[in-house]
Amino acid sequence: MSESTALYDIPGPRTRRRHRTYGLVSTALIAALIGWLLYLLFDTGQFTAVKWDPFTYQGIQDLLLRGLANTLKAFGYAAVLSLALGAVLACGRLSAHRPVRWLATVLVEFFRAMPVLVMIFFIFVALKVQALPALVAGLTLYNGSVLAEVFRTGVHAVERGQGEAAYALGMRKTQVMTYVLVPQAVRAMLPTIISQLVVALKDTSLGYLITYEEFLHAGKLIASNLDYDLPFIPVVMVISPIYIGMCMLLSWFAHWLAGRQRHNPRTEAVGAAPAAPGTLLPGGQ
To answer: 85: burial class by Cβ within 10 Å (0-12, 13-18, 19+)?
Structure first.
């Protein structure tokens, strides 16, 4: 007989055998899918030397490195400005003044609803802004408005009694937000913030549509080269792992930062010393 817990029943021998069967069948199907994809790649000549020769040339390598540097530059600007804009708009949404709150709400909802590509094209074509500022501005407006909602929701998620206790101690609203609510909210918001920054990193690839020489633009130039038999699949196989690696690096940074916060002396609980025998309270006899 299977034992039970408060959450679920521990599977018995028959159920465990069934689960092992499901696992083996799923593994076989995934292996068959991978094998089929590899067969298609070999059958269409995607691993021929002529398609991979471009990556052995110094000029192609420099082109890819320059595109990667431009991608990181655009992401760095967009990330910093998005966090700043999100903080400003979140303060507006949390303001006690109704006109400020309404204005911030309109801006947040408008930029969240607008497609990123439309904003980038509008800034680049209508306002005649250079490619890098247009890309950064579009990413900042969209991601900043999303982060504003993340910040506002995180502050509201903090237990209400925390703010009430701070107000009872005579703190002003700015002090309550700075020293009580925001430090507690940041730990809860951190995974969502990093996820949104990953979105900003991937959206930098939209820069190739406005001729910004970022990583995807460099790959597009290589993939459309007739001299190397249009190496589209090899370019994808080179560029995709780098994008995935950068996103995983951001996730690792989020886990590292969360660990640092957990071990921060300012956020750790302080134990109270036990009362010694014979200790009297003030006014005691």
So the answer is: buried
Alpha carbon of 64 to those of 50, 60, 68, 101, 239: distances in Å? 18, 6, 6, 45, 9
Neighbours of 104 (CB within 10 A): 21
State residue 159 phi and psi, 5-degree precision.
Answer: -55, 135
Q: Tokens in use for 199?
A: 């979105």
Angle, vertex CA 190, rays to CA 115 and CA 161, nearest 5: 110
Question: What is the number of other CB atoms lying within 10 angstroms of the CB of residue 181?
Answer: 21
Cα torsion angle, 101, 145, 80, 261, sign: positive
* 3-class secondary-structure state, position 196: helix
The b/e string for 227-237 (b: 16+ C-beta within 10 A; e otherwise) is ebeebebbbee
pLDDT in tens, 205-263: 999 889 898 998 888 888 887 676 778 888 888 899 998 899 888 888 877 877 776 66
Which residue in 144, 75, 74 sits closest to 110, CA to CA?
Answer: 144
